[in-house]
Amino acid sequence: MAVTDEAILKIKDMILTGELGPGDRLPPEKELSERLGLSRSSMREAVKALEVIRVLDVRRGDGTYVTSLEPRLLLEAMTFVVDLHDDDSILELFAVRRILEPAAAALASARLDHDGIGALRAQVAAVEGSSSVEELVAHDLEFHAAIVEAAGNSYLTTLIESLSGHTIRARVWRGLTQENATERTLSEHSAIVDALEIGDAKLAEALMVAHISGVERWLRQWTQGTLESD
């Protein structure tokens, strides 16, 4: 094991054992390196690495602190990696969405109240057949985000948001090239809301699978050059 990796693991252990918690300040570099039996240079590299993935916050002239360790903060690195993927890899991202979002819909079915359902219906009603592709994409993002948020799992929310952001271009392409994309999207969204309203987790889950699979199927045809009008 590289010395820097060892330093990272030792700092991680300090956090896991509760010796260091969110917002705590790390001991000075010299003290920490002596305490852990590591060189100051390896400790410095470890701190830099943990700063990149938002575990530590280095404040010049003040010290190094453990961040809030909130999911959205810690998963920023994943968002960066996802954004680097090319269009061929986006099919794999859709496959992950097809696994995660139906689960989120099932969880949301037990948590959405009357106001939450009303807000979802209002989002669907706000889109018209004459709406632009950009407006449809904005609605789609807002609709899915509201359901995921209602699931009540912050890690799940952040994971899905990082995947959804990268798939915007696919949604735009679909809107530009596929007939009846707006009507189809709104119809599928309405059906999902109906299932959520009656609290049918299995139905909401199945409808979300079908909804995402439709875009995934279109994208696969597009990347293979076999796209045909439905």
From TrEMBL:
> Its domain of life?
Bacteria
This chain's source organism reads Herbiconiux daphne
Which residues are in the HTH gntR-type domain? 1-69
Q: Which Pfam families match?
A: FCD, GntR
Q: What is this protein called?
A: FadR family transcriptional regulator
Q: Where are the transmembrane segments?
A: none
InterPro entries membership: GntR_C (IPR011711), TF_FadR/GntR_C (IPR008920), Tscrpt_reg_HTH_GntR (IPR000524), WH-like_DNA-bd_sf (IPR036388), WH_DNA-bd_sf (IPR036390)
Please indicate if the UniProt record lists DNA-binding as a keyword. yes
| Alphabetically ordered keywords of this record | DNA-binding, Transcription, Transcription regulation
Alphabetized SMART domains for the sequence: FCD (SM00895), HTH_GNTR (SM00345)
Gene3D superfamilies given in the database record? GntR ligand-binding domain-like, Winged helix-like DNA-binding domain superfamily/Winged helix DNA-binding domain
